[in-house]
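Dear support,

I submitted the protein below through the web form. The confirmation email said the job was done, but the results page showed an empty box. After a refresh the structure appeared. I'm attaching both so you can tell me whether what I see now is the final result or a partial one.
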Amino acid sequence: MQSVNESQELPTLTLDGEEIAFTPGETVYEVSTRAGKAVPTLCYDPRLEALGSCRLCVVEVEGQRVPVASCTTRAEDGMKVTTASAKVEAQRRTLLELVASENREVTVDALRGVASQELGTLVERYDAGGGRFAGAQSGASRPDDPNPFILRDYDLCISCYRCVRVCAEQEGDYAISMANRGFATQITVEFGGHLQDSACTFCGQCVQTCPTGALADKKALRFAGDGTLNRGS
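What the results page shows now:
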């Protein structure tokens, strides 16, 4: 007699030539990560609803005209996926060069936050820090914010929205948001004020999800004697 598990076989997709079983509802990114594929991303946080804005996680799917964001694409039975073709890797490198060109610096103190090294790690991995692109920078830091906990160094912001979303989706505080568009895009609080005058509870979730160190732990940096505090607080 056939067991329940045997009669309910999981669907499969082909990932870089290998057949992988997945649970219905999983995204291509989740399947790829579970299979050990190093698909890059800057806007993804497993605690948050996938957004697909950074476009670094794009993969090629047979039958699709253009690469798709793997974090927002549901896995389908029989799907054939290529995670790191030459075309996709070249696209990722260009995107990272564009992102890095907007920031004052890419290499920052690891004490800024748990995720603060993500951009620097990817720029190094793709050798994308050569300065091929240069021009305007987005994000204006707030050295005038007197709060003792969070450094708002927005010269390093890449508008990934992770801080805004973790504040809303995980904490329910809705203390920070995005204002303006293009190079004028800015992380802000109501009326462009200080964090201590907003709904912020200083839980630190925004600091811990920031992939560039644009939001940083002032106490940790102060303990380490980081000169950034003289510039940004």
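Response: this is the final, complete result; the empty box was a page-load delay. Helices lie at 4-7, 28-34, 86-102, 118-125, 162-170, 205-209, 218-224, 228-232.
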